[in-house]
Here is the input.
Amino acid sequence: MTPDLFEFEERQRCRKWREELCPGAVVLHGFAAQDDTAIFAALHGVTGEAAFRHMITPGGFRMSVALTNCGAYGWVSDRTGYRYDATDPESGKPWPRMPGVFLKLAQKAAASAGFEDFEPDACLVNRYEPGARLSLHQDKNERDFGAPIVSVSLGLPAIFLWGGLRREDRPVRIPLMHGDVMVWGGPSRLCYHGVLALKEGNHPLMGGYRINLTFRKAT
Ligand code: MD3
Ligand code: FE
Here is the structure.
């Protein structure tokens, strides 16, 4: 291997950079990578209390993405609609508390994108298996659109679709890798977005899955 190529690969492996997509929307590449084992352990605690499940959309479809929640509120879907709920419909109990390592990471990421006092009360955990996808949608079940959304990607890579404020706006494709963190605030908060069908693979920590943590201020 030539020295130049070695250096290039080394930089790829340790890559950590900040990409401003538009005012208030930032990708922090590799931001969560150092904390991945602590996040993984905390995630086990959460899913031990509230297991991943496939929810049903108001239209009657089973979501291909499996999900669970932690924090004071959790995002739920059923035949009656989408909402945030303080109890897990599966157990009738409150959602597991948000692990300290989750909260600290979300606040650190928000601050580095210019949102100093982010106090998320909900963390939605999405689990993608090969073939799972999320079609273009807006996140508008939260009460306060002034607060940003922080999203942490772990495990297998995926192509994120970032559209405009109208459904017709042609989305931009953003590859998201293990450890990447996105912060969505300001005008981008109501942008349409989605995730293309996950490709098969194996990740050393997360196995055959992609996990996404999204931190929100729901109430
Ligand atoms: C852009 N999740 O759970 S996170 C969702 O990767 C969701 O699992 C995706 O969309 C995932 O609702 C994308 C990134 C994200 C989250 C919220 C946004 C991007 C956003 C809200 C507004 C604009
Ligand atoms: Fe979303």
Observations:
- The chain has a mean pLDDT of 93.
- Residues 128 and 180 are 16 Å apart (CA to CA).
- The domain at 3-216 is CATH 2.60.120.590 (Jelly Rolls).
- The pocket of fe (iii) ion (ligand 2) is lined by residues 137, 139, 193 (CB under 6 Å).
